[in-house]
């Protein structure tokens, strides 16, 4: 739910229709990319969390989400958005945070309202 909320926030900030995110093309794709064992994005995330380096992973397989994550974060910064999950993925990919720290940092954030009207 956090990922879909952040995705929707980015979409709306860029002038998009939130229905795009809430429909099959948004939620459906997000579910597949996150949970399917055949998803290269999911495989990459699993390997990163086990401590493998992104460059080693990318030498073995194409992972579309790596470039997408970089672009999404650039747009989020341009729009002045605080997207904690997007930011953490960006930090993991750039190796500025260790996988062992990622969950701890996200869970240590102050609590706030998790929903935004779209």
From TrEMBL:
Which PANTHER family did the record assign?
Answer: GLYCEROL-3-PHOSPHATE DEHYDROGENASE, GLYCEROL-3-PHOSPHATE DEHYDROGENASE [NAD(+)] 2, CHLOROPLASTIC
- Record-given protein name: Glycerol-3-phosphate dehydrogenase NAD-dependent C-terminal domain-containing protein
Q: Name one GO molecular function term.
A: glycerol-3-phosphate dehydrogenase (NAD+) activity
Name the GO cellular-component terms: cytosol
Entry's InterPro entries?
6-PGluconate_DH-like_C_sf, 6PGD_dom2, G3P_DH_NAD-dep_C
Question: What reactions does this protein catalyze?
Answer: sn-glycerol 3-phosphate + NAD(+) = dihydroxyacetone phosphate + NADH + H(+)
Which Pfam family, any one of them, does this sequence belong to? NAD_Gly3P_dh_C
GO biological process, any = glycerol-3-phosphate metabolic process
Q: Glycerol-3-phosphate dehydrogenase NAD-dependent C-terminal domain spans which residues?
A: 1-104
Superkingdom as given in the UniProt entry: Eukaryota
Please give the organism.
Thalassionema nitzschioides
